[in-house]
Amino acid sequence: MGKNYIDIEDDQGRTLRYRKHVNGRGLIANGAKVHASALVEAGAYVEPGAQVAAGAHIGRGVWIEPDAVIGQGAEIAPHARIGSGAAIGSQAKIGVRTVIGAHARVAGGSLIGDDEQIREGEQVATDRRGLRLAA
Q1: Under DSSP, is residue 89 helix (H, G, I), strand (E, B) or coil?
Q2: Is residue 108 in a domain?
């Protein structure tokens, strides 16, 4: 039986330990909190301090940076990047290769399409078709 963790050296030479999530085998850093019912696909990384709520779906190749929060039932499509301290609301959908900047906020139920970029600190709310709502 193989080991259930992997050690990776960061840019500062520190070794970080990641465990394989029971539901999907994505890599979860020590210090991150991921609900057991969340699906974190293989090839995804959840960094220290990040939180992933119940029923969330994290696609393959997704990178969730430190202290980001993913709401209940949110869907993050493959190869997206969620910046440090960003928050994705419940039931929000983030498209393929989309980048959410550090400390950005995406409202619950929002739809952010493929290949989009949400700037650092930006707050976004959309309807279910992806049309932006007035602030």
Answers
A1: coil
A2: yes
